[in-house]
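[Automated response] Your request has been received and processed.

Submitted sequence:
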Amino acid sequence: IKSAEEAEKSTHQVSVLLQNQGMSAQDASAGIQKFTKSITDMSAYSGGEAKAALKALTNKGIDVGTAMQNSTLLADVAAGSNTSLADAADLLANAYNGKTKALTTLGILSKDEVKQLGDSEDATITMADVQQRLNERYGGAAQAQLCTYAGQQKELENNFVDFISPSHGDL
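Generated structure:
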């Protein structure tokens, strides 16, 4: 019951954030459901964890479309770096916003490369390059995690929570 209450609270908070980005309540609801489903279908992360990650992304100005495009990368980075989905979302959102400390800590970018990251004509490293490097390092980690015994147990637990609390998966 506590998990379902937290999921409802998280859904409401994300919905408000998306509406503040200019989405209608209906579009926000559909965006949350689509993002959550994409994460839960490919990984051992729960719907609540997916909503917390979406909240972290939208809090930092990332729109739902960009979040959807990066849902696989997000789950892979979280699983591969053994962090929460929300922490991986913070890493990606910070990278999109030009904050690269975590990327240098993970060895994705060197300190010299950080100076070359951006959208200017002089930039030699783009966000697409960063995404490619993250994919090279962590690609497939979420699926691999899901295929483990612990991942299967987590998926079963997530499905059970969704089953006993239909509102946990829906809005």
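Summary generated for your ticket: The CA atoms of residues 8 and 164 lie 14 Å apart. The two ends are 16 Å apart (CA to CA).
If you did not submit this request, please reply to this message.
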